[in-house]
Amino acid sequence: MKFTLELDILFNKELPAEAHEKISEWLKEAGETILLKGCPKNAIEEACRITEYKILNDRLHLKLESGRRVRAHVGLMRLWKFLAPRIGKEFKVGLKDVKVKKFLIEVELDRKPLKPVTLPFTEYVKFENGKAYLSLKDIDMTAFKKNYIDKLLTRLKEKIAAQYVTGKAALSRVVRESPPRLEKYKLRDDPTPLLLEKKWIKEYPLAGVWLILPPFTALIRAIESLVIDRIAKPMNFKEVLFPRLIPLEVEYRKGHIAIANEIWWVCRPKSRDPAFFEDVVDYAIITGTVPREKLMEKLEPPSCGLSYAQCEPFYQIFFKEVVDLDEEPIKFFDRFGPTWRYEAGGLKGIERLTEFYRIEFAWLSSPEKVIEIRDEILKRAEKILDKIFDVEYYVEATTPVYLEHAGMVEEKESKMEYVKTYDLVVKLPFQTKSRPEKILEIASFNVHEDFYAKRFYFKEKRNRPVWTGCVGIGPSRWAYIFIVRWGLDFDEWPKEIRKYIGEKLPKSPKLVTW
To answer: I need a surface site. Which of 276, 302, 311, 484 has the fewest CB within 10 A?
Structure first.
């Protein structure tokens, strides 16, 4: 690893002539002390070195070179802290800013990238002979203070590692499965056309969003009630109402900026004055169309995202707070409203939606209890599928979804005695309309370890490890697989579902044209 940094340290006023000699002495002293601090004697050549300097009236020009031990950007911050009080006290001159002329990095790689890698703050990223060569740009004092450089190098390695992991299948293994049951399924093809024909759903002018009408709504609500009665209540989860507008800082801490391409972003109007939008209104009334570009001009940049995972606000509850693990585990569930995911094209059936309904379970406790709670929810969910839904399914250990969302990867399965993420997957007798696969993942069961404790800065009063977990169960997707298994004849449905609906299903309205 090699760093070459050329820059100017700018002063807030001109130096007196007598300062030049003194600053030279201080630079020599720094090179023999603070720039070597923490570097083993047998690796001195890896420390930061001042290989060139020039003292001007209004600036100090430096060239710093280093290996991996005391990196050039770390050396710069040490020099800043070393020189600032001395120059200020002796000559009443302050250090104002830095101006980076050149910043080159050479870093060894574990393996060759499979495709080009782009990174912010870089003029180029090149790969040759097992190394990456980076030229940085737009590096300012904030970048040095907040250590963007080391984070950038970490991100480089993460992006290369991600190229070798292609989706969940790379780390998935089946841990158990139900007996074969596909022959019991009442429907042998995707139920979406049938639900349209029977007026259980209706198209809506937005891909992945459907009008859910009374019969299908009744089934979804019945499944929701069943899950609450069989999982939430006996496990003492308390209901909460989580916001669905997620501010950018919460999106960042949750890790969702890494999946910005899958989030629906929310933009505020630039003004609430009706006159500000008058031209948009006039155009729409006259032409019968909404002028999208003109409307966009009147919106602020995104300030929020629509909730992607539903549990984002849970972790924000504990932001910079101190918890007490001597208390009972904190266990919440939320069913306040829908979750949104931008799925782009290819949404043809109701099994994969842009807007869908989920019950989100989230909890916080000690490592042992977090794992125990997750496993108990999974056990109860399996029992519903096995004893009531009577579908063919399997449980697989797979890539932790929260790491996927944060743009991180695990290249090999953890050697711990527990699994971080289980997926519950139902087999189908046909390929879904949205994806060419005969399976449907219907729930994910996660142990996050201290991932969110670190990102949301919450701690325990005695500094014991604080873990979290979450499970998302989607009644709309569960309703889909229920229909495939049991069909639309209400009288043939299991009594455990019918009891939540009543003696018969509600009907959709009769229209002349539909």
So the answer is: 276
Residue from 423, 410, 241 nearest 317 by CA: 241
The full DSSP string for 333-366 is: EE-SSEEE----S---STTS-SEEE-EEEEEEE-
Quote the CA–CA distance of 467 and 484 in Å, as a whole number: 37
The structural domains of the chain, ordered by start, are: 2-162 (3.30.70.1920), 171-263+308-498 (3.30.930.10)
| pLDDT value, residue 141 | 95
> 415 falls in which pLDDT band (50, 70, 90)?
low
CB 64 within 8 A of CB 100: no
pLDDT at 249: 97
Q: What are the beta bridge partners of residue 468?
A: 364, 449
pLDDT, residue 72, reads 96
In whole angstroms, how far apart are CA 326 and each of 236, 311, 329? Answer: 17, 24, 9
**DSSP characters for 264-330?**
-EEEEES---GGGGHHHHHHHHHHSS--HHHHHHTEEEEEEEE-SSS-HHHHHHTTT-EE-TTSPPE
pLDDT, tens only, 350-386: 999 999 999 999 999 999 999 999 999 999 999 999 9
| Under 8 Å between Cβ of 222 and 505 | no
Under 8 Å between Cβ of 172 and 420: no
Prediction pTM value: 0.84
Helix, coil or strand: residue 149: helix
Measured torsion, CA atoms of residues 197, 201, 203, 208, in degrees rounded to the nearest 10: -130
- Return d(Cα 413, Cα 287) in angstroms, integer: 58
Helix, coil or strand: residue 119: coil
Q: What is the pLDDT of residues 437-492, one digit of tens each?
A: 899 999 999 999 999 999 999 999 999 999 999 999 999 999 999 999 999 999 99
Strands 238-240 and 330-334: parallel
How far apart are alpha carbons 243 and 4 in whole angstroms?
A: 47
Residue of 448, 450, 477, 444 lying closest to 463 (CA atoms): 450
- Token pair for residue 345? 């094209």
Would you say residue 417 has pLDDT above 90?
no
Structural contact between residues 268 and 303, judged by C-beta atoms closer than 8 angstroms = yes
DSSP label of 244: S
Cα 107 to Cα 152: distance, rounded to the nearest angstrom: 12
Task: Check residue 41 and give its pLDDT.
Answer: 87
Residue 433's pLDDT band, with cuts at 50, 70 and 90, is confident
What is the helix (H) or strand (E) element at residue 62, kind and residue range? strand 59-66
Least Cα distance to 171 among 437, 390, 474, 400 occurs for 400
- Gap between the Cα atoms of 466 and 370, Å rounded: 9
